[in-house]
Amino acid sequence: MVSANVRLHDPAPYDYATPPFPSLYWPIYVKPGVANYLYYASDIWRHTLLWTLIVYAVFHLAVAGFAVLMQLGKGKHAWQYVWIIPLFYALIAGVEALLAGSIVGLILGAVYNAGYFKMSTWIPFIWALINVLILTLSSFSFQGGL
């Protein structure tokens, strides 16, 4: 009698090697062998975390640059402490990206491993963009009422 509880131990191909970090490819008209996929939860988590750190850093430092530019007409006293703004924003970006990237990366890894799916290396990048868009959207105050 064959058991229905058969679990594949390693869904990755035999010659699989984890692709190096960015490993993004042009997804339209992909040639065979060019596409890169992630199979293990640790690789999915790592790619998602790194992309989230990069995207959060870019967005937070752009906002910090805008905040520094807003201090142009304030006089010399304002410029005395303006260097703190990018450092503070970078610290906040790192903490937020560490939390968001880890949570989303672990969830993605669990879901893809449970379904025996292979993940394109574009998916962690897209989820990093989704994370920063959710962060941006949640920064606005929405007041609703009837």
Descriptive notes:
It is found in: Membrane. Belongs to the TMEM170 family. Keywords: Membrane, Transmembrane, Transmembrane helix. It comes from Lachnellula occidentalis. The chain crosses the membrane at residues 49-69, 81-110, 122-142. By secondary structure, the chain is mainly α. It has a domain at 38-135. The protein has four helices and two strands, in the order E-H-H-H-E-H. Strands 1-2 form a two-stranded antiparallel sheet. Helix 1 (41-69) runs antiparallel to helix 3 (84-114) and helix 3 (84-114) packs across helix 4 (122-138). The chain is elongated and about 65 Å long. The model has no long low-confidence stretch (mean pLDDT 82).
Neighbour order of strands in the largest sheet: 1-2
Average the pLDDT over all residues and give the rounded result.
Answer: 82
What radius of gyration results from the CA coordinates? 21 Å
Portion in beta strands: under 5%
Transmembrane segments: 49-69, 81-110, 122-142
Protein name: Integral membrane protein
Subcellular location: Membrane
Main location: membrane
List the helices and strands and how they pair.
Elements: E1 37-38, H1 41-69, H2 76-80, H3 84-114, E2 119-120, H4 122-138
Antiparallel strand pairs: 1-2
Brief synopsis:
Helix content is 56%, strand content 3%. The protein is mainly α. Keywords: Membrane, Transmembrane, Transmembrane helix.
Keywords:
146 residues; elongated; 56% helix; 4 helices; 2 strands; 3% strand; Integral membrane protein; single chain; transmembrane helix; membrane; mainly alpha
